[in-house]
Input
Amino acid sequence: MTDPFRTETGHKSWGRVVEGEHQVARPRRTGAVRDLLHQAGDRGLTALAYGLGRSYGDSNLNPGGALIETRGLDRFIALDVEARVLRAEAGVSFDDILRAIVPHGLFLPTVPGTRYVTLGGAIANDVHGKNHHSAGSFGRHVRSIRLERSDRGIQDVTRETDPELFAATIGGLGLTGIILEAEIDLVPIASAFIDQRTEALTGVDHFFDIAETRAQEHEHTVAWIDCTASGDRLGQGVLSCGDWADEGALTPHPAKAGPALPVDLPGFALNPLTLKTFNLAYRKRQLMKPARARIHYSGFFHPLDSVRDWNRLYGARGFYQYQSVIGFETAREATRAMLTRIAASGLGSFLAVLKTFGEYAPEGVLSFPKQGATLALDFANTGEHTLSLMADLDRIVAEAGGRLYPAKDGRMSAGMFKAGYPDWTRVEAMRDPLLSSQFWRRVTDD
Output
């Protein structure tokens, strides 16, 4: 029998900091996954599913073990336009799904900042979007999941049939079984356009003063923050709100991806001066646009997808993404403290995002969203300077009772993880004994 696994060294985190050698297999049929798990087990390897590689840290990497790439498992099984239900294999991307359903007046219930994620990856990370306050996270809209487990074979899981395994799988980082396919609810849209409202934010207090009101007024809300600003301008930025337009063409985004960033930017291109200049120019450009405009969903939800390989902006050493969520009772002061520390470090981010999560309870055991405010930033990897900054941010988040997003993380401590997700042992109890990841070993091994 031909060995389906090949030794490869090219798999990196999206932040390009974490990498490792893997044994990689690329099945084209879901029926092949069972044999791949058995073969990995026979070789003494742990295994993990791998989609489009958009996790920023090490939650989708398994150095020294096996990766089962799911992108070849990309078939649509059934689309019921009237019932607004889709069933598809786990390797189908949001890019594929949206191009198929938008012409029918349908959309995904919530989308992250990129459409280059797979259905299985969206479930495994319980992704969220700009509309958490109105729709919750993606897992809330999942009807059923088909898993292939090394110890039990195929499992068809719903909230009703196996609530514990279902809750462990939503946001469970792909550890409860290889997701083969899923059935999800879709939402109706009247057009492919968003009516966008843009307004200036003068600072942190201004954001928190109006965030709840804007969330009640609009389906989608998100703020860009100038994280290089300090003093009276700390937290200045731009708040964007949006609602689906009630008329317009049902035209999906273009099939062709945008131009690629051809080379890594040199390390010296990222310094306090260039970051401050970019942030000031970006804010000015956003505020020069009309306060109200009708734009295509691709520009509202996925602006970074217009540039392929944008992660090369941070140079060959890569970058870390840091995303926290903190309850409203402490979020204002904690956000001010984080932005103050970031501005003082000189390690600001090109695109710092601040938004709110609604009252929906976490859908899965390890689901990241909870009611409060979430701040997401990218930090160029400068070594100890960057790690020291994030350690300081950890202390602020921990003292405020917050937690970090596993899908964005490549370095949080076991203590930080366990404090943020005290029920993590429920996922460990449901974990397929053959499945593992570098992230899981790092945050659970004592």
